[in-house]
Amino acid sequence: MPRGPRKKSRSGICHIILRGVNRQTIFEDEEDKIRFLKTLEKYQAISKYRIYSF
User: Fold this and answer.
1) What secondary structure letter does DSSP report for 23?
2) What are φ and ψ of residue 53, in 5° steps?
3) pLDDT digits over 1-54, tens only?
4) Interacting residues of 43 by C-beta distance below 8 A, sequence separation 6+
5) What is this structure's pTM?
6) CA–CA gap between residue 35 and residue 52 (Å, rounded)
7) Nearest to residue 18, comparing CAs of 47, 51, 48?
8) CA 29, CA 49: separation in Å to the nearest integer?
9) What is the largest CA-CA distance in the chain?
């Protein structure tokens, strides 16, 4: 049974967790991690969201 839609935060702050399927490793090596961080940086500049912690 699928999960229902999440409710929108009144504060506008969302807590996001990344986890691989069956807790599989997300970043196989340092290069994967760097590419992910660069992608976050790119879209942060476009959409102006804030990252408070990583």
Assistant:
1) G
2) -160, 150
3) 788 888 888 888 888 888 888 989 989 999 999 999 999 999 999 998 888 887
4) 49
5) 0.66
6) 19
7) 51
8) 27
9) 37
Per the CB < 8 A criterion, the answer to whether 52 and 44 are in contact is no
Residues 31 and 25: beta-carbon distance below 8 Å:
no
Residue carrying the six token digits 């476009």: 46
Q: Structure tokens of 8?
A: 């929108």
Nearest in space to 54 (alpha carbons), one of 44, 25, 22: 44
Residue type, 6: R
**Rounded distance between C-alpha atoms, residue 21 and residue 5, angstroms:** 20
Residue 53's closest CA among 19, 17, 10, 23?
17
